[in-house]
Amino acid sequence: MSTPIVRSVAELRTRVAAWHKAGERVGLIPTMGALHEGHQELIRAAGRACARKVVTIFVNPRQFGPNEDFARYPRQEEADQIRAHDAGADLIFAPTVGEMYPDGYATSISVSGVSDGLCGAHRPGHFDGVATVVAKLLIQAGADEAFFGEKDYQQLQVVRRLVRDLDIPVRITGVPTVREADGLALSSRNVYLSAGQRALAPLLARTLNEMASRIAGGAPIAATLADGLAGLRGAGFDEVEYLEARDVVSLVPIETLSAPGRLLVAAKLGKTRLIDNVPVLPKAAP
Length: 286
Ligand code: AMP
Fold this sequence. Notes:
By secondary structure, the chain is α/β, with parallel strands linked by helices. It contains ten helices and nine strands.
């Protein structure tokens, strides 16, 4: 069994309007396809809150830089239809680039502050592309709630800010990262990894977790970040783009742990760029 696909905004709106007319709550799960267990967990989370679940599949050219993997990004629509169905999705919206950005398209959305630094510093224009496509998808679907993974933590904060700033009437829900047994965060890009790179990749999550427990135990943040960075480089990561401690909501850098923080990393194995993040919480007062 597989989930039906619509390709036009008009068809999407007709389906959602019928569900709303029947009094059903509608959840939206935006993705770029190549669905895995992480995406399926978003669909299941939507199922716990909404009667109807719409998955969007759109490899958005505007969020890829000129030297990034847009052309080779994995595309596998039939397998995605089965995975979406197995997780309980009612509908897939898979528009063409022309449907999303017709001739004459001229609007871009830029969310300042939270888009700066971290991935924003290393992928110029990336979060403008994300904010633009997510705003369009939210407006097109008119869903009641939309589900995003904490795996892309900066993206989640960009989307939360965007929705508040533009008064888009939708609730945004973050879903914890789904991982392989060895800790590696699931990602559609993991298929690019060679066997040797795949063996090294779980060190990213392990390093973050070790750093989080050291910092929670009172270790200074700057020294812990420096040790983590040296560990990743020494183990063979080709480039560590950033390893930082940030405030959970504003994403401003933190030097001490007085409020909940987040440790975030982006590092490359060969050409493959991996990102991950974990919470770091101050010890509860005795
Ligand atoms: P993508 O298809 O990579 O653009 O991701 C679509 C959505 O799935 C985003 O909200 C991601 O944060 C989320 N996602 C991707 N990987 C995971 C994962 N391992 N665990 C939870 N959510 C994920």
